[in-house]
Specification:
Rossmann fold, seven-stranded mixed β-sheet, three-stranded mixed β-sheet, 6 helices
Length: about 200
């Protein structure tokens, strides 16, 4: 039984919880999902998901509720994290916005909303390392990854710019994988190239 946590202080929660359960089932295991709004639950989680939403609000509440330090310890222990859209911004080294206190889980810098406003949202098939077929990526007010550290693996690009990266146990995406029926990104983050005990 895999215990997954979805950071639920703000943003897309139920869609990710459903995707984790379906990804676990596709991998031949079962997952229980906790919605995390206060400290004390993260230490019990095998994997974590940091969803989209409003990055400034998410950042403030993570620190206010004492969850930020727990997430940092989770990653230091080598446990997987999937950070999407605003979650990517919060997980970054530098969000280029003083209102966001980044967790420095991903050695990347980002520009918030660089792909445009809500009206500029779009879906595009992108090639992702580790996936056999293109992934239907949904971009909504998506952040731009404009610099990656030397140890960061770029998993996917769109228009020549990174939109999915991996840094150790942390996978970050500019897009929203939970808004499709395709759970391969969740499988890639949580069940592939993860600690052996999570894959057994």
């Amino acid at each position: 039984m895999l215990h997954a946590g979805v950071i639920a202080v703000q943003g897309d929660v139920s869609e990710h919880a459903d995707a984790i359960e379906r990804a676990a089932a596709a991998h031949g295991t079962e997952a229980t999902v906790s919605e995390i709004r206060q400290s004390g639950t993260v230490p019990d989680c095998d994997v974590l998901l940091m969803p989209g939403g409003e990055s400034t609000t998410i950042s403030r509440l993570l620190h206010q509720e004492g969850i930020a330090a727990e997430i940092e310890r989770h990653v230091a222990a080598g446990k997987p994290v999937l950070a999407t859209c605003a979650g990517l911004i919060v997980a970054s080294r530098d969000a280029k916005d003083d209102r966001v206190e980044p967790l420095d889980l991903l050695d990347v810098t980002v520009d918030r909303n660089a792909f445009g406003r809500q009206i500029d949202s779009f879906e595009a098939p992108i090639d992702v390392d580790g996936l056999d077929d293109p992934f239907p990526a949904v971009f909504i007010r998506a952040p731009l990854i404009d610099d990656v550290g030397p140890d960061v693996e770029v998993l996917a690009e769109w228009d020549g710019r990174p939109v999915a990266v991996r840094d150790g146990p942390v996978v970050g995406t500019s897009f929203h994988p939970e808004l499709t029926d395709d759970v391969r990104l969740h499988r890639l983050a949580f069940f592939e190239s993860t600690p052996a005990e999570l894959s057994d």
